[in-house]
Design a protein that fits this description.
alpha+beta, three-stranded antiparallel β-sheet, eight-stranded antiparallel β-sheet, flat
């Protein structure tokens, strides 16, 4: 689009404590590249973990690094504006793209409209005049495997004959499949070249066995079978010869190396078969000094079939029809396999080596590789409309998703406007009579928590599970209510994702921070009450343990005390002076406390009535003021940026979550308007007047004592 450059008048709105640019008209898109990046809310975002169409994000991510940056987004804006007749369509909801909305001027526009009509024909809707994102969901409906489609991938269905089809099958099997636009596996030029290189290497290796005159294939074509028969009994035959040589070394070993009679007695007591492990574990034949291995008779029944295969496949072709095999003959046969074993060890490490030699020989000698290479090149250049169809999919997706993405990138209007959830909001967590709207997916909880703590928000990390779905971890910002009952681990809730599906959520980690000034006001009193409760519990537990210990000791020593001599009267004498001192000290302490309390009460009662509430309020502020001030300062510092940065974003502004906005992100349970409420609770705790009477009695006694002392005169 060649338009004269004019200064664009940008419009901003204030939200979240910073100025955000408005993106709501075509001129804003056309001049977006002129907007100073320092005024952008975000400079980069990931392509995964967002509540946004991942396919659209991948189409915008030009370098495929998994992140969308400003230049890539600007390129997408420029690209789509140049190809729409009216960019105002981007601001209309929905994903329908009429064919008339595509610019028709120039060769590209005409080609795109032709490709759009071709898509509608392939979808069976030739009379329709618009495309949607769903039309591109199944590429197999748009690209037939029997027709070239311009991607350079040739499936077997496109092969002109069986030879090329078989070659494609070998390439796919050995080199891996590349998916054609039709959805079928196919071969590419790179895969074909890799297959042919491996095939030539394998043929060179195979040719060594076909033309070798040095005895590599000592048994001819039966060499593989001979080696298999040899290896099947090698360990057992070697064991037999070793036993015989040990018997030749010392005659006394002969009897010990053969099974004792008791072993046969054990076997006789159970049903036996030729393949039983107990039978197979016996020696191959009767052990005798320097004995030869019998090949026909006198063999362990469990090994007779394998020894027969050895005699047929290995011994007979080399040594003739033999009934015995000496140790030297056995070692000679083993040496004849050495060259073949070395050749097997040099086998190329490629799946192509699994193909028969005849198949590879015929394939390399044919023209099938050349014809397949030519077919790949024809497919790559044959159907130019394939690129246009891919571009149409991108255009339809950007028509639907570009402006919503900009409203979560250039500005954060979706998040602060609360008309629709932002693309990073994963759903809603219900826990402890609250609903948390600011929930994000988390890939690495430990790494995320280290950075997200800088947000200043109270964070709850939850493990979410749902039957049939992989588990996921979320973090929810708690910005309302209190946190007294938030337990870790074990606190459970329910998480609803953006699709409305419910997940079982279990709290696994909490990052503490102030939630509200109201909670900060009561926190000192709650801490004192909690401390007193803990100390009372500790004191009661200690006293209970002490009483239990004394009772046990008293019962154990009761008999001993009964038999002990009478105690010394002098030792048991009452020390009156000592106890008089103790009582005097207690009296002085109570007197000092009473004097101080009386002075406070006297000063308070001496105040005018209108000043008394102010004094009480002042005392409460003195206690709660520091906590409230600290909470107020921290709440003013709450920031969305670290939460997103911990997920791979590059937030460019200080997106505040102030008190009013934070209150809107966490809903606290409240009765609906107009609800009827009954205050009668049949199971409510029964109130007793005695505590109040006791408190009144204490106050009256204190006032009477103060009057008797003359402090109220």
């Amino acid at each position: 689009m060649n338009e004269p450059h004019t200064a664009h008048r940008w419009r901003f709105f204030r939200s979240g404590g910073f100025d955000q640019v408005r993106i709501d008209q075509p001129d804003d898109l056309l001049h977006l590249a002129e907007l100073d990046q320092k005024l952008w809310a975000v400079l980069a975002c990931p392509t995964s973990g967002l509540e946004f169409d991942s396919r659209t994000l991948q189409l915008i991510d030009a370098d495929g690094d998994g992140r969308i940056r400003v230049p890539e987004l600007l390129a997408a804006v420029r690209w789509v504006c140049e190809r729409l007749a009216d960019p105002a369509l981007l601001f209309q909801p929905g994903d329908a793209l009429a064919l008339d909305a595509i610019r028709a001027d120039g060769e590209e526009g005409a080609r795109w409209r032709a490709a759009a009509r071709q898509v509608l024909v392939r979808l069976g809707r030739p009379q329709d005049t618009e495309l949607t994102v769903a039309d591109f969901a199944d590429p197999a409906r748009l690209f037939m495997p029997t027709e070239p489609n311009g991607d350079g991938v040739v499936p077997a269905e496109l092969a002109p004959d069986e030879a090329v089809a078989a070659l494609i099958g070998h390439v796919v099997t050995t080199q891996g499949a590349t998916t054609d636009r039709s959805g079928q596996p196919g071969a590419t030029r790179d895969n074909l070249d890799a297959f042919l290189a491996a095939a030539r290497q394998v043929r060179e290796w195979q040719a060594q066995a076909e033309t070798d005159d040095s005895g590599l294939m000592a048994w001819g074509e039966r060499t593989p079978a001979a080696l298999a028969a040899f290896d099947a009994v090698q360990a057992k035959v070697q064991d037999y010869y070793t036993r015989c040589r040990l018997a030749a070394f010392d005659d006394r070993a002969t009897e010990a190396l053969n099974p004792p009679d008791s072993r046969y007695a054990e076997l006789s007591a159970q049903p036996l078969g030729e393949n039983d492990d107990a039978v197979a574990g016996l020696p191959l034949a009767r052990v005798a000094p320097d004995a030869a291995l019998p090949l026909l008779t006198g063999l362990n029944p469990a090994w007779q079939a394998r020894i027969a295969a050895l005699r047929t496949e290995v011994v007979a072709p080399m040594l003739g029809d033999r009934e015995q095999l000496t140790l030297d003959e056995w070692q000679g046969l083993a040496d004849r396999f050495s060259a073949y074993r070395a050749w097997l060890a040099a086998r190329p490490d490629t799946p192509v080596a699994d193909l028969p030699a005849d198949t590879l020989r015929a394939l390399l000698a044919s023209d099938a590789p050349d014809r397949l290479a030519a077919l790949i090149e024809q497919d790559r250049a044959a159907d130019a409309s394939a690129d246009a169809i891919d571009a149409l999919e991108r255009l339809v997706r950007l028509r639907r998703d570009l402006v919503p993405l900009l409203r979560n990138f250039v500005n954060l209007s979706d998040f602060y406007g609360q008309q629709r959830p932002a693309i990073f909001q994963a759903g809603t967590l219900y826990i402890d009579q609250r609903s948390c709207e600011l929930c994000l997916r988390v890939a690495d909880m430990g790494r995320h928590a280290a950075l997200a703590a800088l947000s200043g928000a109270y964070l709850i990390y939850c493990q979410c599970v749902r039957q049939g779905e992989p588990p996921m971890t979320i973090v929810a910002a708690l910005t309302g209510g209190d946190t007294d009952d938030m337990m870790v681990p074990g606190r459970n809730g329910v998480f609803y994702d953006r699709e409305g599906r419910d997940w079982h959520a279990s709290v696994v980690k909490v990052v503490e921070a102030p939630v509200s000034v109201r909670q900060a006001f009561w926190s000192p009193y709650k801490r004192v009450a909690r401390l007193i409760g803990q100390q009372v519990q500790k004191f009661a537990a200690a006293r209970d343990k002490e009483v239990e210990a004394k009772s046990a000791a008293g019962v154990a020593n009761a008999g001993a005390k009964a038999e002990a001599p009478p105690p010394d009267a002098k030792a048991q004498a009452f020390d009156i002076a000592r106890f008089a001192g103790i009582f005097a000290a207690i009296g002085l302490a109570l007197g000092a406390l009473g004097t101080a309390l009386a002075a406070v009460i006297t000063g308070f009662l001496a105040l005018p009535a209108w000043q008394m509430p102010l004094v009480v309020l002042g005392l409460m502020l003195l206690i709660s003021g520091p906590s409230m001030l600290l909470a107020w300062l921290k709440l003013r510092q709450r920031n969305l940026g670290p939460l997103l940065d911990a997920n791979g974003w590059a937030v460019n502004i200080r997106a505040r979550i102030n008190l009013p906005f934070g209150a809107s992100l966490t809903g606290v349970a409240a009765l609906p308007a107009g609800s009827q409420r009954s205050l009668q609770d049949p199971y409510a705790d029964k109130s007793s007047p005695w505590p109040w009477w006791g408190l009144l009695a204490v106050l009256l006694a204190g006032l009477y004592w103060a009057w008797r002392q003359g402090w109220l005169a």
